[in-house]
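Hey, can you fold this one?
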Amino acid sequence: MTACLTGFGQNSECNNFKTGKFRMEDPSTGTNLITRTKSSQIEYLPKLEVKVELNVNWINSCTLKLTLNKVLENPKEMSIEDFVLVSEIIKTTDSSYTMRSKIQDSDIVLIREFIRVK
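Sure. Predicted structure:
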């Protein structure tokens, strides 16, 4: 296990997770499925039956800004407001990363582990 703290290691380790498919367990929303490309991220929350597309903007090698682009699926018509999420990869392993995320203009901070899905 390696930490994403300083030096050259940080860049290459974070770069390993800039794109791909990931799974994240959340206490309130269950299993979330994430597919990230260089410019967009699709998040599917099966428990809530919600799928959204987010714009991805990498601020530096380990920090990205996610902005809601559009709601792709929402059959229960849940209220989904525009938001900006700033997320930083704070730890990596061979197959996962831990990310600290903060909703812009809010005090809410979430720390979650994302596991690469083959």
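Residues 1-10 have pLDDT under 50 and may be disordered. Let me know if you want another pass with a different chain boundary.
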